[in-house]
């Protein structure tokens, strides 16, 4: 497996795209590729649900490639949790004043003034081409505003409360931190007891 590309100068940047995950699924790009978009027209979450990205959001997808004969399906099912821990850690560094948690398998929840809201989501999709399993890890973060509608148990919320003077949001820095946090844990995916599962337990929130 090749780690996600940490050099922002090598990221693919799009003004508009249907979905960053869809873009990587249909393009023949190498492992480690990162794509960031200003806007998604057909963003989606798990089970085909719509993911609405307000202006100023982080919309990012990366591709990881594995030998399909050397990594089991049950290991790959842990990738949303790995990405969740990495994203939570990145968001903590972006705004240390907020409390964040993980609602398995793919939501990051913010607790602000005893009110919980969904601040970010993760979508992991994969396909097999020959012996190669291509895994797309997509994240969406509500940075300074949140959409009005949601298909989640928790209503959408933003990482920064601009009405209280929080921010600004540095999209590239958030993306860089996410990539670094994920890369730091990526090798654990093949271990019998990945250490990041302990982090998931630490930050888990209920239904």
Brief summary of the model shown:
The chain is an alpha+beta fold. The chain is built from five helices and seven strands, in the order E-H-E-E-H-H-E-E-E-E-H-H.
Overall description:
The chain is α+β, with helices and mostly antiparallel strands and 207 residues long. The chain has a single domain (8-203), classed as Bira Bifunctional Protein, Domain 2 (BirA Bifunctional Protein, domain 2, 2-Layer Sandwich). It is 24% helix and 29% strand. It has 5 helices and 7 strands. The protein has helices spanning 20-26, 73-76, 79-94, 171-185, 196-203; strands at 12-17, 34-40, 58-67, 99-103, 107-112, 115-129, 132-141. Strands 1-2-3-7-6-5-4 form a 7-stranded mixed beta sheet, sandwiched between helices. Strand 5 (107-112) and strand 6 form a beta hairpin. Helix 3 (79-94) crosses helix 4 (171-185). The protein is globular, with a radius of gyration of 16 Å. The termini are far apart. The mean pLDDT is 89.
- What's the helix count? 5
Count of discrete structural domains: 1
**What amount of the residues lies in strands?**
25-35%
* Radius of gyration from CA coordinates: 16 Å
Biggest sheet character: 7 strands, mixed
**What form results from the Cα inertia axes?**
globular
Order of H and E elements: EHEEHHEEEEHH
Q: What would you call the quaternary organization?
A: single chain
Low-confidence segments, ≥5 residues, pLDDT <50? none
CATH topology: the name is BirA Bifunctional Protein, domain 2
Structural class: alpha+beta
| Number of E-state strands | 7
- Assign the CATH class: Alpha Beta
